[in-house]
Amino acid sequence: MVKEIERAGIPVVHICTVTPISLTVGANRIVPAIAIPHPLGNPALTMEEEKRIRRKLLNTALKALSTEVEDQTVFEPEE
Amino acid sequence: MKLELGYIDIQDIQFSEESKIANGVLYVNKDEIQKIVLGQEHIRSVEIDIARPGESVRITPVKDVIEPRVKVEGPGGIFPGVISKVGTVGSGKTHVLRGSAVVTTGQIVGFQEGIIDMAGPGADYTPFSKLNNLVLKMEPEEGLAQHEHEHALRMAGLKVATYLGELARNVQPDETQEFETYSIPEGMEKLKGLPRVAYVLMLQSQGLMHDTYVYGVDAKRSLPTIINPTEIMDGAILSGNCVSACDKNTTYHHLNNPVVMDLFDKHGKEINFVGVIITNENVYLADKERSSDWTAKLAEWLGLDGVIISQEGFGNPDTDLIMNCKKIESKNIPTVIITDEYAGRDGSSQSLADADALATAVVTGGNANELITLPKLDKVIGDVSYVERIAGGFNGNLKEDGSIVVELQAITGATNEMGFNRLSAR
Prior knowledge:
The structure holds two protein chains of two kinds. Chain A is of the alpha/beta class. Helix content of chain A is 41%, strand content 13%. A three-stranded parallel beta sheet of chain A has the order 1-2-3, sandwiched between helices. Chain A is globular. In chain B, strands 17-19-14-20-21-22 form a six-stranded mixed beta sheet, with helices on both faces. Chain B has a four-stranded mixed beta sheet with strand order 8-9-1-13. A four-stranded mixed beta sheet of chain B has the order 5-12-10-7. Chains A and B meet through α2 of A and α8 of B.
C-alpha cells in the first residue's frame, strides 16, 4: 500500500514495529512503532503516558512527511 | 547427557474396563479419562473418541497433539515445570507410546486452529493421520476468558497424555535408541575433527495465545539459552499455541523434533551435534534484535562450524529468522534456515516477509496458501462449522455436499518448519 500510494505521487510515512520488513519491502520514510499487537499505544501504561507516546509518534511521522529524503530513512521518535 | 528412548509400538486404541497396554493395543478406560479432564478447572464437559489411520474421520478445530511418554529412569518427570516438578530431564530412560497421540479439540479458542483428516487427500498433508489418536472434545464453562480456556485445554491434554504414558512404565519396549551429547571439552576430544553443529530452535512467543513453555517458563519472558536435545525429548518444551495450524509446532513436534533426530543420526559420524540454542519470537523490535544478538553470541561462544535454524509461524517471525541467519552468518558460521512460504494461492507473491543476501541456504515446508479441497468424511469429531473462521478458511468454503475448500494453512502440520511432514516436490 505504501508503495502504491507513493507511485501515485503522494509521500507516505510507514509507522510500523518491524522496521526491517518495511526496509525490505521498500518504504522510504519509516517511523518505528511500539509493538506488533499495539503499534500506536501501550496497554501497560497509564492513559496520560499513552497520550504522550502517541503524540510523539505522530509528531515524528509529520516531521518525516515534511523531510526530503534521498534514501530509505528510519526516523526515530523524538520528544 | 545420555537418554535411552524405549519405543512401545501402539497399533490400536480401544475403550475398555481397564486402562493398560497389551500386545500393542492401548486400552483406555473412558471414565478415568473423563475424571482427569473434568478435574481440570474451567472444563464443563468432555467427549472422548478414537480416530485411527484410514478411518473416514475429520478432527477440527485441533489445538494440540501430544505423544504420551513416561520417564522410567533418571531424574525428573515428563513435562517438567508444568506436569512434573521442575527438575532437569533428558537423562536415564523414557518410554514412548509410538504411533499414538492425544488430540485436543472442542469449541474454538483462537482463529488459528487446524484440521486433521484421517483419510482422503487431506490425510497426506498431516503426519497425525498416521497415528492412533485419543481425541478429547472439551467444552469450557460459559463466559471463560480466551487465555483461561486455552490454559484449561492445554493442561487437560497434558494430564491425559501423562496418564497414558504412565501405562507404559513397566512395558517391554519394542525398540530402544540411545542419544548422547557431550560437554564442550569431551566433545572436542572424542569427536576431534568433526564439524561442530548446533540447532537454533525458534519458539513462537508472540503472546495472546501464541506461546511456548520451556520448563514452565513462558518463552517470551526469557532470553535465548542452551538446552540439551534430550531434554526436549522428555517434554521440556510445550506448545501453548493457537498459531496457524500448518506451521505451528505442536507438543508432538517438539518431542519428536526431526532436526534433532537427524542431527543425532549424523552425530559422531559426520558432525559433532553440540546442542540446541532456543530463542523466542517476540513482538517488540528491541526483543527481536536482542534475542538474535544473543543466538549469534551463543553460536560464536560454542565454537560452532555450522547452524541449522528452524522457524515457527510466519509473518513478523520471518524477521526473527532473517536476523538470526544474518547475525550468525556474520560470525562466519554458515547457516541453513528452515521455513515455509506464503506466496499467494498462485505461488507468485514474495514467499517471506523479510530477506537477506546472507540467507543462501533455505529449506521450505511448502506454500501454505495453496488451496486444497477436502471431500466430505463420514464423521466429524469437534465442530466443522468453524472452518470458515480458522486461518486458511474463508466465507463460503464449507460446501453443501460437506466438502471443504481451504488453504494448506488450515491443516495441522502441513508446512511444518521443522520439516516434519511428507510433502515433497519430487
